[in-house]
Q: What sequence folds into this?
């Protein structure tokens, strides 16, 4: 594993889809993530990400460094590999389904994940070049709470027990 992912994560009030579509570099995709059996301290998942014109399948293994950073090893896989690896879904988990809205604001990429379990909130993430980099939150985003490092809001944890919506 040679890539380090540094990200901040927030629960936000759900902005309108029209507002998101108006942002620079906007894309939307439907994601299904399945967490599979893995070694201790390793999070192993496969993902199906469907865009309007294509579906991309990936396999990712992460090892947490601290609450903001993780070693990440990710590769694109075939639909057949996705199905084969998915068969080893971790006991006690369910697939995590979400709609991801991605856009660029102040040269920074933001991802807003909308889950069917919540009606008025979503999770927003942004990856950073280093742990000290300041996050410039878009002015149209209302943060409910920062949840960086809060395991309850990791997708792996949400595959086992989905947290109640924060109002």
A:
């Amino acid at each position: 594993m040679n890539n380090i992912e540094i990200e901040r994560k927030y629960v936000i009030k759900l902005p309108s889809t029209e507002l998101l579509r108006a942002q620079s570099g906007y894309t939307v995709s439907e994601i299904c993530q399945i967490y599979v059996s893995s070694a201790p301290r390793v999070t192993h998942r496969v993902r199906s990400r469907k865009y309007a014109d294509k579906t991309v399948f990936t396999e990712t293994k992460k090892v947490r460094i601290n609450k903001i950073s993780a070693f990440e090893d990710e590769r694109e896989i075939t639909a057949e590999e996705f199905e084969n690896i998915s068969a080893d879904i971790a006991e006690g988990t369910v697939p995590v389904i979400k709609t991801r809205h991605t856009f660029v604001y102040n040269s920074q990429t933001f991802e807003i994940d909308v889950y069917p379990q919540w009606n008025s909130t979503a999770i927003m993430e942004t990856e950073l070049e280093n742990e000290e980099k300041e996050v410039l939150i878009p002015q149209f985003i209302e943060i409910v709470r920062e949840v960086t490092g809060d395991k309850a809001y990791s997708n792996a944890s949400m595959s086992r027990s989905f947290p109640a919506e924060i109002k």
Summary: The longest strand covers residues 24-35. The mean pLDDT is 94.
